[in-house]
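ESCALATION

Customer reports they have been waiting on this structure for their group meeting. Please prioritize. Original submission:
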Amino acid sequence: MNQQSTLVYKCPHCEAKVEVGDEMLGEVVNCPKCERPFRVEAPPSYPIGDDEAGSVIRKGGAPHVGGPIDQERSLLVLHPAVFRRRIFQSIGSMLLIVGGLVCAVWGAGVGSATLGFGGLIAAVVGGLDLAYWWFKSLYVTLTVTNRRSILRKGLFSKATSEVNHDDVRNIQVEQSVVQRLLNIGDLLISSAGQDIVEIRARAIHDPEAVATIVREHQD
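Update from on-call: job pushed to the front of the queue and completed.
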């Protein structure tokens, strides 16, 4: 008596595991999760004990079969621009640092405690301003992989938004005249079935190039 084997396929649309009988090889089936169709291709055989991961696994004690899974890999990791996002404020902070240090040294040279102390305070204020915005930018991260875009915000508590590239309905780039000159801008991504923008990455470097990468990885 022939024992039928069951193949476990990964849906190419939503990546859900779908169990399919041998008799369905070559046929088109619908994923029970996303209800989108895909063809059940006959997988190549692998030797028993092969450690290479596959997108199809034969159940019931039969050999592992299937091609290698298309692993998710990171393409870009971006943080908001610090200097170019606040160019005039950043220049002001740097002038405070330089001017404050000059005044502190000058005050020490002429024996003026007021001038020296005032200059030191100005330098510290300028440095703290730059440090604050730099650390703040580190806790907003846009990660673009070959499958999805992920926006993470927060230091102690994390807020995460993600959109699969296959589900992207709309990609927008918003730039002011100054931002165009500085090559920064906002990237907005929304998916099918959503009326709101799910990912809004502000003041990232070269947003047009990022949008192009997302489009290139859409099926």
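Sent to customer with the following note: Residues 45-69 have pLDDT under 50 and may be disordered.
Escalation resolved.
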